[in-house]
Prior knowledge:
This protein is mainly alpha-helical. It is built from ten helices and two strands; from the N terminus they run αααββααααααα. The chain has helices at residues 22-40, 52-59, 63-75, 94-118, 121-138, 153-159, 164-184, 192-203, 207-223, 230-246; strands at 79-82, 86-89. α1 packs across α7 (164-184) and α4 packs antiparallel against α9 (207-223). It is globular, with a radius of gyration of 24 Å.
Amino acid sequence: MVRKAAPKLKARPKVVGPEPTEAQEDVVDRICATLATAIGEGALKPGTKVPDDVIADHFGVSRTIVRGALDILQRDHLVERKRNYGVFVVEPSIREAKKLFEARNALERTILDIVVDRATEEDLAYLDRFNEQDERIRHGHEAPPKGGPVKKFHLELAKLGDNEVLTEMLDKVMARITLVMALYGGETRDPCGDHRNIIAAIRRRDLAAAQDLMAEHLAVIEGLVRLTPAEDDLQSFVNVLKTFSSAG
């Protein structure tokens, strides 16, 4: 019996769209950087609507290009699309907030392990100066620098480890924690004293002390937020009603 040869399958034609130009990629990067910085510095609060037409007008590009940038920010969990409503700055859940703090603790421990081994005295002198300037700005003795994103101590510390992947990961986690602080945060505090102690431990090459100090520092930051279920908020409201309805 002679078997018939199986019919050859026709190759599907490739659907190739126009490749983004270098100029388009550049503007997408600028849109992402602008919005990520605004979110990371608390200028755009959780739940804020992000209108693509306004962004398109500002950057002088099509809404298609803006939507490409917003897709990237959505993958980074900084914005979310709500069907039939548009794009909004993310409102992290309590579960997500706890995981973000857990991730940040792990990243900071790993970064310190590398920084203690690699940071030079020149690096640490720079970090000292940076922290001192940050302290003066926080106390109102010096105006913050104009132009560009505000530098953050923990990212400057991470850069001393010369590992761009870890620094980028920390940057993204910190941006999302900014949203947590805006949504659930309470009073703030001046962390510069903690930073000085961490730098001193790094200078002594005392990894265990540096990691313990960092853990305490991050625990204080986490303690500033109320990561409690909505039922607790309702109970608090009920307690307020009980207190004030019985007054007088």
